UniProtKB/TrEMBL annotation:
SMART domains: FN3. The keyword Disulfide bond applies. Keywords: Disulfide bond, Immunoglobulin domain, Repeat. The lineage of its organism: Eukaryota, Metazoa, Chordata, Craniata, Vertebrata. GO terms for cellular component: neuron projection. CDD domains: FN3 (cd00063). Gene3D superfamilies: Immunoglobulins (2.60.40.10). Coiled coil: none annotated. It comes from Atrichornis clamosus. PROSITE patterns: FN3. This is NRCAM protein. The gene is Nrcam_0. Residues 5-107, 111-207 form the Fibronectin type-III domain.
Amino acid sequence: VPMVAPGNVQVHVINSTLAKVHWDPVPLKTVRGHLQGYKVYYWKVQSLSRRSRRHVEKKILTFRGNKTFGMLPGLEPYSSYKLNVRVVNGKGEGPASPDKGFKTPEGVPSSPSYLKITNPTLDSLTLEWGSPTHPNGVLTSYTLKFQPINNTHELGPLVEIRIPANESSLILKNLNYSTRYKFYFNAQTSVGSGSQITEEAVTIMDE
């Protein structure tokens, strides 16, 4: 098997899900056989928004021939990673380079995990929601938009409300009685808005 590890491993983080890794090629005489390529082992150490430690799954990408760089796609935003690089010949892999750590920046969050509308009265509705399963960063706020739907399914004027990120419920007052409303709800990080969840509910006709 090859004798030495690739040197001078560098990581360039391109965005919240993509990084580029560079290395110096090993001297050909240390390959001790036919150079097949380089393997990059990389794994997520932890999410920066959740301190949970779970089983670390190592991923491997193979770059054929005398490549000196490779792209690592499909990374998770706002996470810390480690990687190392090994050279490969027909017999197997050489030793790993020292582990190199890197962090991905924040991304936009996934949609809130649920939106539930309860306690209808003549002029109010209560909204409850769950934070996104993948915040992909630090949540800064939620945005709620809603509008009435009339009997011919036309949409009325859209109202927009910003809600602090630490809230998980809201009572909407001063609504019209016996009216169906459509709600659009999403979360934000400093990068931008995530995908929205929609729901409909009706205020009651009379007490």
